[in-house]
Amino acid sequence: MSRPPKIPAEKKLRIVLSVLQGEISIAEAARREKVSEQAIGKWKRQFLEGGKAGIEAGKSKPSTREQQLEDEVAELTQALGEAAVEIRVWKKSAEGRLGPSRTSR
C-alpha cells in the first residue's frame, strides 16, 4: 500500500481550524482527506502546541529590539548616576576652595 500524497501545510491548517471551530469532526475530516484520524489529531495537537509556545514566548521573552532598549536604559541610568556623583564631588571640592556656593543649601 502506497503512502498518500503529502498534504500542504495550508490545507492542514484549514482542516484543523474547521475541526476546532466544530464545523467538522475529526472522523469526517479524515474520511474526506483520506488520512487517519490520528493524523488529524496530530496536526491539531501540533497547531495548539505551536500557538501556546508563541503566546508564552511573547509574554516571557522581550523582542530583540525591546532587549536592546532595556540594555540602553540600564546603561544610561548608570551613566546618569555616575555623573550625579561626579557633580557632587566637584561641588564639594569647589566649596572647599572657594567657600559655600549660593546654590548649595
Features:
105 residues; mainly alpha; Arc Repressor Mutant, subunit A
Instruction: Give Rg in angstroms.
Output: 32 Å
Number of domains: 2
Sheet with the most strands, sense and barrel status = none
CATH architecture of the largest domain: Orthogonal Bundle
CATH class of the largest domain: Mainly Alpha
Percent in strands: under 5%
User: What is the first-to-last residue Cα distance?
Assistant: 93 Å
* Share of residues in helices: over 70%
State the total count of DSSP E strands.
0
Structural class: mainly alpha
Quaternary structure classification: single chain
Number of helices: 4
**What fold name goes in the CATH topology slot of the largest domain?**
Arc Repressor Mutant, subunit A
Gross morphology is rod-shaped
Low-confidence stretches: none
Mean pLDDT, rounded to whole units?
86
